[in-house]
Structures are given as C-alpha cells and as structure tokens.
Amino acid sequence: MEQKDFIPIVQLCEHYSVKISFFNELHDMGLINITTVEKTSYLHQEKISDVEKMIRIHQELNINTEGIDAVFNLLQKIDSLQNELNKLHNRLRLYENDY
Amino acid sequence: MTYIDYYKVLGITKKATENDIKKAYRKMARKYHPDLNPDDKEAEKKFKEINEANEVLSNPENRKKYDKYGKDWKHAEEFEKAQQQQQYQRGGRQGGSAQYSEQDFSDFFSSMFGGGSAGGRGRNVQFRGQDYNAELQLELEDVYRTHKRTLTVNGKNIRLTIPAGVKNGQVIKIKGYGGEGVNGGPKGDLHIKFSILNHSKFKRDKDNLYTTIELDLYKALLGGDVVVDTFDGQVKLKVKPETKNLTQVKLKGKGFPVYKKEGQFGDLYITYKIKIPTKLTTREKELFEELAKLR
Questions:
Q1: Residue A94 is part of which domain span?
Q2: What's the confidence (pLDDT) of residue B150?
Q3: DSSP alpha helices (H): ranges in B105-184?
Q4: Domain of residue A10, CATH code
Q5: Is there a contact between B191 and A57 if contact means CB atoms under 8 Å apart?
Q6: Dihedral angle sign, alpha carbons of residues B60, B65, B68, B72
Q7: How many domains is chain A partitioned into structurally?
Q8: Domains of chain B (ranges, CATH numbers)
Q9: B239 partner at 20 to 30 Å CA-CA among B30, B108, B109, B256?
C-alpha cells in the first residue's frame, strides 16, 4: 500500500463537515479501517465511496452508527442476492435461447 | 395534470402537526432513500414525491396555500399574482433557491408554487441522486491490455477506458453518471462491477497465471524444447532431462499485468504433466522391458 492511497481523516472531517468521533465510531463498528501513522489517522481511498454513503445515511436520515451497520449488512445481503438472481437469469436465458 | 394529495403521500391526516409531518417524512425517507434502494426506479420516484410533499407541508405558508387551493389548483395562479402584488408593495420579492431543479417536482407543484422552490423561506433539502450499479462481463483476454469500450447505461452511451489487469468483482466508480439529484442535488455515480469470465487455459490468481502442459515421456526423460502459449505470444522453454511429473517452472513477468502499474506483470507458472505412451507396439514393449532390466 502506498502513502498516496490514504487520506487523512482530518481532511475528510473538514470536507464532509463530520466530527472525528463519527469516523472513530465507524471504525469501532468495523465498518471502516482507520490506519494511524505517526499520530495521524488515515482512511484508504477505496473506502471513500462507502464512507460517503454512510455520511449521507447519517446526515439525511438521522441514522446512528448502529443503524448504519445494520443497513450496510442488509445492503450487502441484497447485493449478493441480486448478483445471484442476475446469474440465474443469465443462465435461464441461455436455455430459453436454445429452444 | 392531476391533483396530488400530499397528506396521503406522507401517510398523515390534515390535522397533522409540524412534528407529525417531520416524523412521517423521516420515516418515509428512510424507506425510500436512494442509498437504501439501489437500482430501484420506483423507490426513486416515490422519494421525489415524499420530498415534494415535505417541501409543501413542512412550510406553514405553503401548507396554508395548499390546503386552501390544493384541490382547485387552477386558482393558485390568481393567488400567486395577489401574493406577488403584496410583496411588490412591501418592496421586493422573496427569493427562491438558485439550486432548484424544476424537473424534480410534479406539474401540479409547479402550477401551485411556480417554477422555483416552494417559495417563502424555502426549505430546500437537496439529495444526491441514486447510484446506479451495472455489471460488465469481459473475457480474461480482454483485460490483458488497456482498452476502450462503449457501454449503454440507462440510455446513455459511456466511453470507458478499462485498465489492464482489472480483477473479477472489482468495482469502478464513474462520478455523475447515476440518477438525477433531488432538489438540484448532485447526480449519483455509476458503479461498474467487472465480471471476468475465463475460458482460457490459464488460471489467474491475483497477477499470477497458472497453466499445465503435457510433456511426453521421452522429452521428460531426455530433455528438449517445448513451446508454451502466453497472453503475449509463444515462448520456447528448455525442459531439463529427467524432469519429474508435476514439476512447476516459473516464467517471470509473463503473468497478468498489474492493475494501474504500467509495465509491471505477475509471473506465469507452468506445471508439466507427463504423458505416458499408450497402445505400445511389440517392439516398444520389448525395449521398455530391456530398460526395466537395466534398472
């Protein structure tokens, strides 16, 4: 992992107008992974899209971090079911095209 | 243009207090928020309706106007004129929000409240548009080299550069290609998930490739050359004499390109599977027996 792939949490707090405690709570929930290097906390850039979604859910829907955790678990389940459904549809289409 | 019952949209009665409206709106928004309903057009539509209802009912002035003229929306224009006249006399108009996007509201709303936001103090909550998810199926050979591809997502053509080495299940985000924002909020993003199909003779593990080639018994015993296919053309390999079955050799840098690291490649691992000759002739049998006696 390169340093440039990480974004300081302080910068994210400023950008999204969120308190640092929000990120710490997400970290404690296991929803994000904060890496600390020389007393500065960082978040990997791959997680930005998820974090943006968590912030929206928190700010727009007044959902706390426990709720976000539950929402994300359910969204993951939906995603995997949707993928499974797509695969089955594709497979079914193969048979339907044969006849 | 049809009348919209905003109370019904929020599931409340006309007697609802400000607090009831707020509660009902929060409850409905949690149910239909685009982040919680990915790829759901119906939810997106419903979410817009809820916002419109909230825009009107959470503002006492607009609510009053809606209650008075809602069903008879055609009179709203006259009401608007009278209001404007009054405002003019008071010395100026109250401004709507500059970030308002007309297409986010129904015709009914526009007719009642004009093209801008619901006027007055204009509580204009903006929401980001829905993220769209799409899956793109590619063959392993396709992602060996960086290439461009045109995709059609929700009727829009998107020219996409697919970097070499993209992995199965990897998701890339294209900013601003998702659903329209609500109340002039930013557009959502498009997430493309790559599904890499592999019909090649190679097995891929991260950036390394694995393949098995058959080696005839004589070449395994005496050594020789074999030609191996790679994604980058054919490679001639020297087989050492007395090579054992399932020996693995590594071709450095002949694996798969490393994602977004130009010029870097994984390795190619080749396993030799020794093929035992069958349907031996009488002469061959004699020679093998002779060999056996020598051991």
A1: 3-98
A2: 83
A3: 107-113
A4: 1.10.1660.10
A5: no
A6: negative
A7: 1
A8: 6-113 (1.10.287.110), 132-197 (2.60.260.20), 203-294 (2.60.260.20)
A9: B256
